[in-house]
Write a structure and sequence with these properties.
Helix content is 34%, strand content 26%. By secondary structure, it is of the alpha/beta class. It has 2 domains: 67 residues, Vaccinia Virus protein VP39 (Rossmann fold), CATH 3.40.50.150; 90 residues, Rossmann fold, CATH 3.40.50.150. It binds S-adenosylmethionine.
């Protein structure tokens, strides 16, 4: 599994708990202080041996994984800086294989995907990635809206073809 955007390791822990026997999770985090907290949390959850945290800009880490000839990832979770979502989606395809599942979080963003003036920083990247999900022949995708205590949002679920 590959995760882009670790923060404190909350999603990392949930995903690592779902790994099959022999599976591993690599997660990308830009800020060392977030990575340190995540490492402590993942270790206290007893999952440290399954999780590698790479610190740095995710685009650099993803390029490094390609250069290293990393085995294809079966599952990719995208949840970092939204401006780079289209690039992360492209990397998910390049580092995946046919059948790889991709989840991209925060694709409704309180409706900013319909009104970019609500968030001119994040909305453009989210919209570009949604357009890519609809048009890129390498992907089949759908979007699920969510409404809850954290507000109105949604996630995209895609399959690499
Ligand atoms: C929304 S949080 C991740 C939350 C986490 N996935 C969870 O659900 O528990 C986004 C994280 O992405 C990190 N981030 C932002 N830009 C990044 C980049 N260019 N490369 C790697 N990580 C980045 C932030 O520092 C932050 O920790």
């Amino acid at each position: 599994m590959l995760e882009i955007g670790t923060l404190a390791g909350f999603s990392t822990i949930w995903m690592a708990q779902g790994l099959p026997d022999g599976g591993r999770l690599l997660t990308c985090e830009y800020l060392p202080k977030h990575a340190d907290v995540a490492r402590a949390n993942v270790d206290s959850a007893g999952l440290g041996h399954l999780v590698e945290i790479r610190v740095g800009a995710a685009l650099d880490t993803l390029q490094a994984l390609a250069d290293e000839g990393a085995e294809p990832f079966d599952f990719v979770f995208i949840d970092a800086d939204k401006e780079n979502n289209p690039h992360y989606l492209d990397w998910a395809i390049r580092l995946g294989r046919p059948g790889t599942a991709v989840v991209m979080d925060n694709v409704v963003w309180e409706g900013a995907v319909l009104d970019q003036s609500m968030d001119t920083v994040n909305a453009p990247g989210i919209i570009s990635a949604l357009t890519m999900l609809g048009e890129d022949p390498r992907l089949d995708a759908t979007v699920i809206q969510t409404v809850g205590s954290k507000g109105w949002d949604g996630f995209a679920l895609a399959r690499v073809l």
